[in-house]
Amino acid sequence: METARGRRGNEEEAATQLNSVTSYARALCHVTEISENSAEALRLLIWRIFVHTLKEIDTNDMDVVNQIEGLLFDVVSKIQAWELMEETIVTYCLRSIGLSMDMIQSDQLSIYKWGREDLLGYPGTFPLPVACRVLISLLDYVLRRMEIQKEEKLEGFALNLMWDLSNLAVRTLMQSPEVRAISISLLFPTIFKCLNTFSSIKVVVHDAPYTLSRSCFAKKIWNVCISMFSLGHLERLDAYNVLSLYFSSFYMIKLKENTEGGSICKEFDLRAEREFWKEIQRGLVDKDPCLRKLALHILKVSFNNYSFSSHSNCHYLSSTSKFVAADSVEHTTSCNGTSLLANITKRGKWAEEEAKSLGVGEVLHPDDGYLSSQERWKVFLLLYEMLEEYGTHLVEAAWTHQISLLYQSWSLNNCINEVSHEVYKVQMETIEGIFSWLAVLWERGFFHENPQVRCLVMQSFLNTDWKEYGTCALKVPRSFILGPLIFGLNDVVHHKDFGVKGVYTSKVIEDATHFFYEYSCQFSQSERADFVWSLASVAKKESFGRAGLMALAFCIASAACQCDTQNGRGKHYTASEFSGESSQEVTPSRASDLLDALGFVIERSKQHFNPNYRLQVSEQVIKAAASLININYVSLELFLHFLSAVPREFTDCGGQLRELVLCWLTQRNEGSILGSFNVEDLTVKNLVSFPMSFLKQKYSPKEPLSFDDEDLDAWKIEAQRWARVLFLILEEAQAFEPILMV
Predict the structure, then answer these.
(1) How far, in Å, CA of 688 to CA of 711, rounded?
(2) Residue spans per domain, the chain
């Protein structure tokens, strides 16, 4: 009780002191106002009372600070001492902000000049929050006065302050997180408000006219945000906060700006920046939920504040993006006209009813099977919000209802030409744009916090009948395939029966294999080699579990072989299966990179103890190598290095992959410039030169020939590799006679 009573007493004492300060300030302001030399009295009031008081008062006591500021601003307005305010408070606060960023002096284009030295003999600076609050309070006061009465001095004061403050605000974005946080919360909202009031700011600096328009300021902010995106997570988060303020404050900017040629109408639309859309897509799939929410907010607000297309007469999206459910879902049809509810489960029906009762979904019924870009955006936002906000059963219901609507939009006849239209129209009015946003939904689903949602979205993607949509599989972004899709397949939740009873596959692996076949079926041999190299190189960057690595191996083989990769071992291989397209051979340099990447996948499989698992991975990788690489174009050393990655027991006599490797080695390519290839002749020829080629690396005429243990060990390894290939190819005794004679 005594503690509570003491705390109450301290609070009452503090309140009494603050009231005394306010009363004292009010009295001084009144005296200053009626003084004969009011300007000089005001100067003393500012330096000796106002500045000192704001340094001492806790900035959390905003009511008191606002009262004192209001009293001072009223005096300045009554005696028209705006120039004095520029010399004192404005310059003092701008200097405080600049010094907090370690600036030595004001910019060359600044109207108010200041440096590190004390201002007019008055030492110190305001803390950054205080300096910002004083300036934004002053600007807000001026704007209110201008609404009542237009004054030339007042407008000039506001424009000059806005010019310097906006330039400093942009610089704060590249400062420490503390400085950025204060600037974003205090300076930018006021600057945006002022720019909405003035539209453009015209000032004179060093006798030269300058103009700051909303368009110019928006471009400055965007350029800084682009730099912030790549600096770090905190910088990226702050950049999103600035963009959120921008879209919440500015509407479609159409303004006339003076140029030498006269007055022209310039329009700045951030949606015309391709990098803007890419960054929003990255933000929507970020691991940080706060960043995802900001990205979604920016996407919504940008649509609410902008007319989406010139031929649209309706509002684009509501602020909440909650769409009213249709009265009935019984008429929902897929793209081929069949009912989506035909095979729905009882659980799915309950989910649909609950989704409809909550008003979280809208079922569209396009009569002509065509969705406008507005309707596509509705579907996208609905599905994304389902993934972010609702339970598994509602996600399932929404996905079942809506994903087929985007599938209907894949017809090329319903999409515009990407080359001939603006960037923002490309997003949902071209097939490439639609797939880029579908990739956002898929990626968000693949890495959802709920494993059931991850399974649902992966199953939905892999079960798509890509043949029904022609070549649309090619429109799936390659960055999505080489990133989120492969990483998603590494999720153990998709492979529950993997490894049971020695079966190292799963339904998801089989479906993924089929997708990679459909995706690469239109590739040339050269394009396929590039894609397989990119696919195999993922293993160098990411760690894969057992099921994930097996899925990667099967996908590599499916993309490379363009045939069924699910066949069992023991199949009789023929060399003709691996003959490439003679007119589009993989070049030697590309073959070297490809074999290196494929060999790394086999090396990764050795981390897993089961030999049957390693055998299956090795088989798929060798299939891919044999399908893409003509052995004519591979140097002996490179082939030795690749084969050494394969466990020896798989290729020795009786090994399960021996026949597969032999078929690769004995393949012929009649269209090759090397013609028919005799493996045995090449083997014998290289065997003779092999020791000397190894010795030449150490041999010097001026020094005695000597080898240490490391050299001998390296030679032993090379000899073992060579002997392995030799005994792989030469099985009969008479085949060794040419070698022994040498």
Answers:
(1) 20
(2) 19-198, 210-306, 681-741
